[in-house]
Amino acid sequence: xxxxxxxxxxxxEDPRAHILRAFDELARLPETTLxxxxxxxxxxxxxxxxxxxxxxxxxxxDTRLSAQAxxxxxxxxEASHGRQRSFPNAPRTLDLDVLLYGAAQIDxxxxxxxxxxxxxxxxxxxxLVELAPKLEIPGIGPASARLAQCAxxxxxxxx
Length: 159
Ligand code: AMP
Prior knowledge:
By secondary structure, this protein is of the alpha+beta class. It is built from four helices and ten strands.
């Protein structure tokens, strides 16, 4: 079994409902147990600013799937939420990312783990550190230290 962390984001069509449904779908993935779900966080959009705020969260999974198979499953869940890829950082009904896959460092076409931008994004780090305060990001260092460096980013934990 490998402990993997999945980043979840949505900013269209009732984002909270998409995130809650995504948690349930992650719990039903093959060869996988959902072991923890973070709080939801309301966050300002990064990149393309003229779009609704996001809701973000992180899920912890114990999985026997390979990292590649896990990503394929996540893309299937995204598709079932009507995800369309229009342009980078565009609004999206559901975005699922493999943040971490155990201590693995993977650099393949279509799959980079740890997720390459996770260590500079408070909307990933805040829910991640909530679930795993002492987590080390392979090749980067303590997630909590990176979160402290993102203090200027607008992230609010919601009920
Ligand atoms: P996005 O628009 O954020 O959903 O990006 C999806 C693209 O990123 C897909 O082509 C994936 O193959 C690629 N990708 C690379 N590494 C990862 C990762 N760790 N998690 C999710 N997608 C990834």
